[in-house]
Design a protein that fits this description.
alpha/beta; Rossmann fold; 4-stranded antiparallel beta sheet; 10 helices; 12 strands; 29% helix; 24% strand; globular
């Protein structure tokens, strides 16, 4: 019998009201996340990719309970976290931590590293007295920073060093799941590689589980075991990392991969690319049927009226498209 998933997201919807007028009446809603489902197994890195505005960060914030889901269910270790309130949330907060995109704005500029990492240790009674300094020293060493960084303020560190402090703060709670929301996109490319390697090392050494939100496909390919591709609040395709990048099935996934330039200029010059036309539709008024049909180069009339379900194509790959091959069956 296989182990149950650490995180399960089932038919998640997140909508934001649009208000207008003097009385701020609700005149519409933004359908940021529109009925997505996925599971994350213990010990794996699960990536979510897509264009800006597709709903990736909204999913991350819903998992962290930083915003409430409109409908749907999010279960952590088999327990529905949507129903947790007040003190019931404290154990969940310890087990699920976040690493944010901008390491400068996510750290308090008025506090030293000692205070930044020490605060959650004291709040959750994980260390006290001299034990706080020793624990922070160990965490900094784990994130490849010397102990002297305890006395530094965020503005005295580089972007990569600040992000390492952010990682150390997340590790202070000894979490089981870490949500990385564009955790390297604000860093220089050379520093990105260092942080990605650090995250991978920590995952292997500590048995961590990641939900990695990103738009850089090369980063996601390097770090993640499985990947979900989102477009306009929906999941278009999921697969293990190697399969997704070598045999993409959904037209949108293929378009994303085609947009990545080849490092060899000769190969890049010979590539035939059919770019996507048009802009991403307004999430307050998404297209009927398949939400991608307005930009899809192979869309048919059926795509305009019927929304395709996310169906299994192989044991490790699913896609939401009427034009892919016949679904996989266990029978």
């Amino acid at each position: 019998m296989s182990e149950s998933p650490l995180l399960s997201v089932n038919n998640l919807h997140v909508r934001f009201p649009i208000k207008a007028g003097l009385l701020q009446r609700t005149v519409g809603e933004v359908k940021a996340v529109n009925g997505i489902s996925f599971e994350v197994n213990r010990g794996e890195a699960f990536g979510i990719v897509g264009e800006s505005g597709c709903g990736k960060t909204t999913v991350a914030r819903a998992i962290l309970r930083l915003l409430e889901a409109t409908t749907g269910n999010i279960a952590f270790e088999g327990n529905n976290i949507s129903s947790l309130t007040g003190k019931q949330l404290a154990p969940f907060r310890r087990k699920v931590q976040a690493i944010f995109q901008d390491p400068f704005s996510s750290l308090n500029p008025r506090k030293t590293t000692l205070d930044i990492i020490g605060e959650p240790l004291r709040v959750h009674a994980l260390a006290e007295g001299d034990g706080v300094r020793q624990r922070i020293t160990d965490l900094l060493e784990m994130c490849e920073l010397p102990a002297r960084f305890m006395e530094l303020y965020p503005h005295e560190m580089s972007g990569g060093q600040r992000q390492r402090v952010g990682i150390a703060r997340a590790l202070a709670m000894e979490p089981e799941l870490i949500v990385c929301d564009e955790a390297v996109s604000a860093l220089d490319v050379s520093i990105q590689a260092q942080i990605i390697n650090l995250l991978e090392k920590l995952r292997q050494e500590l048995g961590l589980t990641y939900v990695f939100i990103g738009h850089d496909l090369s980063v996601v390919r390097h770090l993640c075991n499985r990947v979900a591709v989102m477009y306009l609040g929906r999941i278009m395709e999921t697969a293990d990392s190697e399969t997704l990048f070598s045999q993409p099935q959904h037209p949108y996934t293929r378009a994303l991969l085609d947009a990545v330039p080849d490092p060899d200029p000769l190969t890049e010059a010979e590539r035939e690319i059919e770019p996507l036309h048009g802009e991403v539709p307004n999430p307050s008024n998404p297209p009927s049927g398949c939400v991608f049909h307005t930009r899809c180069p192979v869309a048919e009339e059926r795509c305009q009226h019927d929304a395709p379900p996310l169906v299994s194509l192989t044991p490790s790959q699913s896609a939401a498209c009427w034009l892919v091959k016949q679904p996989f069956s266990n029978s």
